[in-house]
Design a protein that fits this description.
The strands form nine sheets. Strands 27, 28, 30, 33 and 35 form a five-stranded antiparallel beta sheet that branches. The chain has a four-stranded antiparallel beta sheet with strand order 1-26-25-24, with no helix packed on it. The protein has a four-stranded antiparallel beta sheet with strand order 2-3-4-5, with no helix packed on it. It has two domains: 354 residues, Neuraminidase (6 Propeller), CATH 2.120.10.30; 119 residues, Jelly Rolls. The protein has 498 residues and is mainly β.
């Protein structure tokens, strides 16, 4: 059986004030310069994979950064300025297929390479000999505007975001050309055993003109520095770095047929380019949902994520993004239209945002420190109160190897937007041995158990339990295969975090 563990939320436990503000919780520091991306593998391991510009991918296992890199391809990577190893993405079903993808500038001439690798027999180390180059995107004339994001979309396809090839004002004419991969969002099918295929629903799939790039999904981009999919809706957010005056966030709703033209270099943000830019033809262009100018020290947008985590319910639905130069973190929300405010002014050189499998959002300083975005959450004491009892209103008892969901918020004085509860979990009347795993509803099943039990004796354990959507907690009973045992359990709450 699994070692018992509680799900601990790192929060401030003090008397509750009237308002909550955004704060950053340091996760790891001392990584050295060049943190450029963070992601998870979707394998329920709880690991965070950290991309270093020099050509390494590091593993944070939840408590520390492992000494041995997950991947080290420094010999293949040209690093410096805007070049380097810029992203890693794990294929859906990674826990069984072991396949992942990297985006880097190659040493010989700076061209962009998208390559596939596989994990080795050691889950924390990739097989460096497994590399297969899928795409080589010419990018030797200028060293800037490499883009660099890889993401798998909700459709299972791999999306990539090359920049326009560099120089000022798009001298290569990439943004508005469908005959180059530069300045685009690309979409490819990486399900074949080798190579890749063109998704048949790509807007230029099957185009009889051999010079048209069928991998194109959207175009008119300058330097998309981080794009992400909303894990709840599937919507796509693209942060595109501006030329001299405006930074922008572009948007593509889920279900789109692709083919959007986001305007560069006809437009910079929602404004004609070059300035003063009047009277440009905007027919067929998709304008940004958000923009800001450079008048107060901002200069280069870093795209982020729409928060869908469970720890900080008040943040749900907020799209976070930042600026590399000013260190400002902005928070955007939607209520008929998108609006944005500066949520936190920092001294960070914001190089990237990341998301773990639970939907928590992270932000990194290029110099080597990673933080989790949080609110100044406070602990509220409650009189002891029973919120769950499978011997009574929540009957029947739990069967072996099953999962059930219980609504906790809204009972015993627990507000609907609480992020977690402090509780005593008690097991009674077990007819076989096993363990319970309690976890936020609609999140991945954790590897560690909340409480172990044997047939007969009553067992109790203190736990801090994060709540899922609707203030719910899910419970998984694990017993030996073939067991017909049952178990009753109780949750007695004595406080909540909000």
């Amino acid at each position: 059986m699994r070692r018992a563990a509680t799900f601990v939320v790192v929060l401030s436990v003090v008397a509750a004030p009237a308002a909550r503000a955004l704060e950053l919780q340091r996760v790891v520091s001392g990584l050295g310069a060049g943190v450029v991306a963070m992601t998870h593998a979707g394998d329920a391991s709880g690991r965070l994979f950290i991309t270093m510009q020099d050509g390494r991918v590091l593993v944070h296992d939840g408590t520390r950064v492992l000494t041995t890199p997950f991947l080290d391809i420094r010999s293949l990577v040209r690093s410096g300025g805007e070049q380097g190893l810029l992203s890693v993405a794990f294929q859906p079903g990674y826990a069984t297929n072991g396949r992942f993808y990297v985006y880097y500038n190659r040493t010989s001439n700076g061209d962009v390479v998208i390559a596939r690798y596989r994990v080795s027999a050691n889950a924390n180390v990739a097989d460096p000999a497994s590399g297969e180059v899928l795409m080589t995107i010419p990018h030797s004339q200028f060293s800037n505007h490499n883009g660099g994001q890889l993401q798998f979309g909700p459709d299972g396809y791999l999306y990539a975001g090359p920049g326009d090839g560099g120089g000022g004002g798009d001298p290569l004419g990439s943004g508005q050309s469908i005959r180059t991969w530069l300045g685009k969002i690309l979409r490819i099918d990486v399900s074949p055993a080798t190579g890749y295929a063109i998704p048949p629903t790509n807007p230029y799939a099957g185009n009889p003109d051999a010079t048209v790039k069928q991998e194109i999904w959207a175009y008119g981009l300058r330097n998309p520095w981080r794009f992400s999919f909303d894990r709840a809706t599937g919507d796509l957010f693209i942060a595109d770095v501006g030329q001299n005056t405006y930074e922008e966030v572009d948007f593509q709703p889920v279900g789109s047929a692709g083919g959007q033209n986001y305007g560069w270099n006809i437009m910079e943000g929602a404004h004609c380019y070059p300035p003063p830019g009047t009277g440009c033809n905007q027919t067929g262009l998709t304008l940004p949902i958000l923009e800001y100018d450079h008048s107060t020290g901002d200069c280069s947008i870093t795209g982020g994520y729409r928060y869908r985590g469970q720890l900080f319910q008040s943040l749900r639905g907020t799209y976070f993004y930042g600026d590399f130069c000013s260190g400002r973190i902005r928070a955007a929300t939607f209520s008929g239209t998108w609006s944005s405010t500066v949520a936190l002014d920092t001294a960070l050189s914001i190089s990237t945002f990341g998301e773990d499998q639970a939907g928590e959002v992270y932000v990194a300083d290029l110099g080597g420190t990673i933080y989790r975005i949080a609110t100044n959450t406070y602990f509220h004491t409650l009189p002891p109160c029973r919120v769950t009892d499978t011997r009574g209103a929540q009957a029947p008892a739990l069967g072996a190897n099953t999962t059930r969901t219980f609504t906790v918020a809204g009972t015993c004085g627990i507000p609907a937007d609480s992020g977690a509860i402090a509780a005593i979990v008690t097991v009674v009347g077990a007819t076989d041995g096993g363990d319970l795993r309690l976890f936020p509803t609609l999140t991945a099943l954790p590897g560690a158990s909340t409480i172990n039990f044997a047939a007969g004796p009553t067992r109790a354990n203190n736990a801090i339990l994060s709540l899922g959507d609707g203030g719910r907690v899910s419970v998984r009973t694990d017993m030996l295969p073939g067991s017909t045992g049952t178990v009753d359990f109780l949750i007695d709450v004595y406080g909540y975090f909000r």
